[in-house]
């Protein structure tokens, strides 16, 4: 399987650098580029990328708005990887809340960039869990609400599903969760799917954000 990537950044040098890193891999192809979030929806519809690597701050439409637009208007939307200069950024947290699957630092090493793209496609573990915890600590409480707590309460997670959500929040992969709980990987996948469905979450990143904002999991 070749992973198709769309690059969205208002800096040509950033796009060129990402393209060079990604296209050096036999299983990754850059299928297009855009300089602003306003161009993302039509490009996603025409190019059908698996991943959009999207700058969080752009002049006309930022990464938060573009993420929301893609998820709201595109059937079977791609994974969205927010590209940012600063990891502890309210804009990044806003993009994650809007439905982005993870984020990537512009100063990341080539191997980290490739790993991030592959990981969000696989969807079996949380990308940079320590950084997500830091974002939740910095912005989660102020963004958290009674609604988040009520959503978790209505979800009616079983004890085992709660265990799985806690381990997801710590960044464990499905295989690592299976080893910790002494169950099969397929059983963990079933529990993860149930957690996402009950929380109404698009993927494990949104489930973990909900866990932090509701107070179910402490960023500490």
General description of the model:
The chain is of the alpha/beta class. The chain folds into 2 domains: 3-126, Rossmann fold (3-Layer(aba) Sandwich); 144-214, Orthogonal Bundle (Arc Repressor Mutant, subunit A), CATH 1.10.10.10. It has 11 helices and 5 strands. It has helices spanning 12-22, 40-47, 63-73, 90-98, 110-122, 129-143, 146-155, 159-169, 174-181, 185-199, 204-213; strands at 3-8, 28-34, 51-55, 79-84, 102-105. The protein has a 5-stranded parallel beta sheet, with helices on both faces. Strand 3 (51-55), helix 3 and strand 4 (79-84) form a beta-alpha-beta unit. Helix 8 (159-169) crosses helix 10 (185-199) and helix 8 (159-169) packs across helix 11 (204-213). The radius of gyration is 17 Å and the shape is globular. The model has no long low-confidence stretch (mean pLDDT 90).
Helix content: 55-70%
What sort of overall outline do the alpha carbons produce when their principal axes are compared?
A: globular
In the predicted model, the low-confidence regions spanning at least 5 consecutive residues are none
Task: Kindly name the structural category.
Answer: alpha/beta
CATH topology of the largest domain: Rossmann fold
Strand order of the largest sheet: 2-1-3-4-5
Strand content: 5-15%
CATH structural class of the largest domain: Alpha Beta
Number of strands: 5
């Amino acid at each position: 399987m070749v992973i198709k990537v769309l690059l969205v950044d208002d800096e040509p040098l950033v796009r060129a650098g990402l393209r060079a890193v990604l296209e050096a891999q036999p299983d990754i192809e850059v299928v297009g580029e855009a300089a602003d979030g306003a161009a993302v929806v039509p490009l996603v519809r025409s190019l059908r990328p698996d991943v959009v690597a999207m700058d969080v701050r752009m002049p006309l439409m930022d990464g938060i708005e573009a993420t929301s637009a893609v998820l709201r208007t595109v059937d079977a939307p791609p994974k969205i990887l927010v590209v940012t200069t600063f990891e502890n950024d309210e804009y990044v947290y806003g993009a994650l809340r809007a439905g982005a699957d993870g984020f990537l630092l512009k100063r990341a090493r080539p191997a980290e960039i490739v790993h991030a793209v592959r990981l969000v496609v696989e969807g079996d573990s949380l990308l940079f869990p320590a950084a997500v915890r830091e974002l939740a600590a910095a912005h989660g409480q102020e963004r958290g609400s009674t609604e988040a707590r009520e959503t978790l309460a209505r979800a009616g997670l079983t004890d085992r599903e709660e265990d799985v959500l806690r381990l997801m929040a710590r960044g464990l992969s499905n295989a690592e969760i299976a080893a910790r709980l002494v169950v099969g990987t397929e059983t963990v996948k079933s529990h993860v799917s149930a957690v996402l469905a009950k929380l109404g979450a698009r993927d494990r990143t949104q489930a973990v954000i909900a866990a932090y904002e509701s107070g179910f999991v402490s960023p500490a």
